[in-house]
From TrEMBL:
This is NAD(P)/FAD-dependent oxidoreductase. It comes from Shewanella gaetbuli. Belongs to the NADH dehydrogenase family. InterPro entries: FAD/NAD-bd_sf, FAD/NAD-binding_dom, NDH-2. The keyword Transport does not apply. Residues 4-332 form the FAD/NAD(P)-binding domain. SUPFAM superfamilies: FAD/NAD(P)-binding domain. The keyword Lyase does not apply. GO terms for molecular function: NADH dehydrogenase (ubiquinone) activity; NADH dehydrogenase activity. Pfam families: Pyr_redox_2. Keywords: FAD, Flavoprotein, NAD, Oxidoreductase.
């Protein structure tokens, strides 16, 4: 009888895994590969801030799971996981509702022989009062679209009234920095699209960070450079500032100051999604991640794996693998090899995370970051156009894992041609 591999979550990790497994086994008949995602299209998460500001249009750049599954040998099922029963080897999917709230498909159960959890992570508000109600968490396609709608409303209003608009972003990690820089670029560009009364003086961008520098996880030189670029762009940096409450008016700091913002974004911290709390049979941590061993097997289970942001894998150094796209991609590659080994009855190999450095985009033409050299040379600093090209090549690598070399190149070329003709900004 055919063995069924079910992967839940088609993001940086899950989709890369499903594509490779589907291409290898999908057309053979004895192994069935099935990918489940709550969305019908995939956008690589590090590009969410570009969706949010309208630099990319999800309807053009988004990958349709159904079509991709057809061409890459896996079956796609649309649904959100709500439960996992390892005894019965069954997961449960929530009912699917239409816009009016009517049930289109009721709750379903899906059986598996091998289960892979790859449902990603969400921002962590650390229970800050008012954050859930007043902030947009830039951690899903829906939230990026919500931000986009709010931005369009603000632009319309600005153009008519010439008042100013304030956008506050909590967290000066990669997401917050990239969003702030991209917003600046967008405001500079909108006047050519008929928003004649808008200039950068009308938009106040506040970036709020509890640490004493931006990009606190990255080397000093990268933080310093990003900080100076952001300051030059006119982005107001609030460093060593902790937010204790979020209200409709803005952010209240530990020192009881109010940082006013009509659009509020929370881009700090990562934890597993709330649904993980439902998986009571699995070892779930206080941060809603599932504990895995060094081969990414959920502890205590031989046929359940987890990878990417929803997994807690402690390295030999005692530190967990960081929640990054490069870690998700590396995990997908190792797990692909391990599943192949397991199906041949051979021993699986441990995952070893290799940090190749980090690159942070500072809008369309520049980026900044550090790359790992060898042991003697340590890390080296890159910036400007070269760093930007390297940053773009990370996305190219993701595309290669989804389509293979040739199709990824054709896809990129087609996208470039389309970009040349279509609007540079999505303003609807
Ligand atoms: C704005 C932003 C910018 C970033 N920039 C960078 C960067 O520059 N460099 C870097 O290394 N990392 C970056 N990251 C982090 C990186 O994107 C993540 O670490 C990476 O995407 C994790 O991959 P994943 O597969 O675990 O999760 P994801 O890519 O988040 O995929 C999770 C998938 O699971 C699906 N899903 C969620 N819940 C359910 C459910 N209940 N049922 C079914 N499906 C579900 C989602 O729809 C999604 O498709 C950024 C993150 C954000 C938000």
């Amino acid at each position: 009888m055919a063995q069924k591999i079910v992967i839940v979550g088609g993001g940086a990790a899950g989709l890369a895994l499903a594509s490779r497994l589907g291409r290898k086994f999908g057309h053979q008949g004895d192994i069935e590969v099935c990918l489940i995602d709550k969305n019908t299209i995939h956008i690589w998460k590090p590009k969410l801030h570009e969706v949010a500001v309208g630099v990319i249009d999800q309807s053009i750049e988004g990958l349709q799971y159904r079509d991709h599954g057809l061409k890459n040998g896996y079956q796609y099922i649309c649904g959100a996981i709500t439960g996992c029963d390892p005894q019965q080897k069954v997961i449960t999917l929530a009912p699917v509702l239409n816009d009016e709230g009517d049930v289109i498909i009721g709750e379903r159960s899906i059986g598996y022989d091998h289960l892979v959890l790859a449902v990603g992570g969400v921002s962590n508000s650390f229970n800050t009062k008012g954050a859930e109600d007043n902030c947009i968490f830039l951690d899903s396609l829906n939230s990026a679209n919500r931000f986009h709608d709010k931005l369009l409303d603000a632009l319309l209003q600005l153009n008519e009234t010439q008042d100013s608009v304030s956008i506050g972003i909590v967290g000066a990690g990669a997401t917050g920095v990239e969003l702030a820089a991209e917003l600046h670029h967008v405001i500079e560009s909108v006047s050519q699209y008929g928003y004649r009364s808008i200039s950068k003086q009308h938009l106040h961008i506040h970036l709020i960070e509890a640490a004493d520098k931006v990009l606190p996880q990255l080397p000093e030189q990268v933080s310093f450079r990003a900080q100076s670029v952001l300051s030059k762009l006119g982005i107001k940096l609030h460093l060593s500032v902790q937010v204790k409450e979020v209200t409709k008016q803005g952010f209240i700091t530990k020192d009881d100051e109010l940082i006013e913002a009509s659009i509020k974004v929370w881009a700090a911290g990562v934890k597993g999604p709330k649904v993980m709390e439902q998986f009571t049979a699995l070892p779930i941590t206080g941060r809603n991640q599932v504990q895995v061993d060094d081969c990414m097997r959920v502890k205590g289970f031989d046929n359940i794996y987890a990878l990417g942001d929803c997994a807690e894998l402690i390295q030999e150094s005692g530190k967990p693998v960081p929640p990054r796209a490069q870690a998700a991609a590396q995990m997908a590659e190792t797990l692909y090899n391990n599943i192949c080994l397991k199906l041949k009855g051979q021993a699986e190999k441990p995952f070893i995370y290799k940090d190749y450095g980090s690159l942070v985009s500072l809008s369309r033409f520049s980026a900044v970051g550090n790359l790992m050299g060898n042991l003697r040379s340590g890390t080296f600093f890159v910036e400007g156009h070269l760093a930007r090209i390297m940053y773009i090549s990370l996305y190219q690598k993701h595309l290669i894992s989804l389509y293979g070399w040739f199709s990824a190149l054709v896809y990129r070329f087609a996208q470039k041609l389309l970009r040349w003709k279509r609007p540079k900004l999505k303003l609807h």
